[in-house]
């Protein structure tokens, strides 16, 4: 059993993995919406804070947040960023809309029910796209990556914060044992960086986040042309 680097291909992917389609995502997050902030808000807060700090430090104002969920990140963006959020789940978006109205988040320009794997935005509409705890949820993470790349201008930035599966050890076994439960959970416990990134991605940094490196921030430069 090799201890490959984070980006190495995983030769041990012969375990059963449940398929997550758009309907199972909608169904899972219809159930999670009412309790999402209480159950996941705390443990995921440091990773979310880290990702938004990274967004706030980047050039460009047009920000797309895919899988915006209940909008936990929205109050944390710098007010000169213009933020659009998309999500598949109507119930999660309702929570996000309540947050925007309740906290008067005027930098949030839109919250749209939309599939992040096939978005209605023109090419190069954004400077930055960020997916927080969403890449392991979407049915096809490589399609998500390609679509985020399309709607961000060349030289812009794509950011992902996520739990990525362990390479070996007890956590590796637990994550693989949980893999068939993806439809119930609403995410893939065995999600690996190789599920998201192929060899052509311009990865600028892979940074472990608190707590105890459970989450990882991946920073990608979009395409080769242009940029700040
Ligand atoms: C684990 S939640 C993360 C929510 C939020 N980003 C956060 O930091 O709390 C994942 C979200 O991704 C959304 N999602 C999953 N697949 C999607 C897709 N293909 N297009 C848009 N949203 C999607 C789900 O509905 C859910 O709201």
Which short descriptors sum up this protein?
alpha/beta, Rossmann fold, 7-stranded mixed beta sheet, 7 helices, 7 strands, binds S-adenosylmethionine
Structural features, described:
It is a single chain. The chain has 228 residues and is α/β, with parallel strands linked by helices. It has a single domain (22-221), classed as Rossmann fold, CATH 3.40.50.150. The chain has seven helices and seven strands; from the N terminus they run ααββαββαβαααββ. The chain has a seven-stranded mixed β-sheet. The N and C termini lie far apart (42 Å).
What string, H for helix and E for strand, traces the elements in order?
A: HHEEHEEHEHHHEE
Structural class: alpha/beta
Query: Number of folding domains?
Result: 1
CATH class bucket: Alpha Beta
Strand order of the largest sheet: 3-2-1-4-5-7-6
Distance between the termini: 42 Å
- CATH topology annotation: Rossmann fold
Q: What is the CATH H-level superfamily?
A: Vaccinia Virus protein VP39
CATH architecture: 3-Layer(aba) Sandwich
Number of strands: 7
- Name the shape in a single word: globular
Biggest sheet details: 7 strands, mixed
């Amino acid at each position: 059993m090799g201890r490959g680097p984070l980006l190495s291909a995983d030769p041990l992917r012969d375990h059963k993995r449940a398929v997550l389609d758009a309907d199972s995502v909608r169904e899972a997050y219809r159930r999670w919406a009412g309790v999402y902030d209480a159950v996941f808000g705390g443990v995921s807060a440091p990773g979310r804070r880290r990702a938004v700090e990274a967004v706030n430090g980047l050039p460009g104002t047009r920000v797309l947040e895919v899988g915006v969920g209940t909008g936990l990140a929205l109050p944390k963006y710098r007010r000169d960023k213009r933020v659009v959020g998309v999500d598949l789940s109507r119930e999660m978006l309702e929570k996000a809309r309540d947050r925007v109205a309740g906290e008067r988040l005027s930098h949030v320009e839109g919250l749209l029910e939309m599939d992040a794997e096939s978005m209605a935005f023109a090419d190069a509409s954004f400077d930055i796209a960020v997916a927080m705890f969403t890449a392991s949820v979407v049915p096809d993470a490589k399609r998500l990556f390609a679509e985020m790349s399309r709607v961000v201008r060349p030289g812009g930035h794509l950011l992902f914060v996520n739990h990525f599966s362990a390479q070996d050890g007890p956590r590796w076994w637990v994550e693989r044992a949980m893999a068939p439960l993806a439809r119930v959970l609403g995410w893939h416990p065995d999600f690996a960086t190789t599920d998201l990134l192929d060899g052509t991605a311009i990865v600028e940094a892979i940074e472990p986040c608190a707590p105890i490196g459970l989450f990882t921030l991946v920073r990608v430069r979009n395409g080769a042309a242009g940029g700040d």
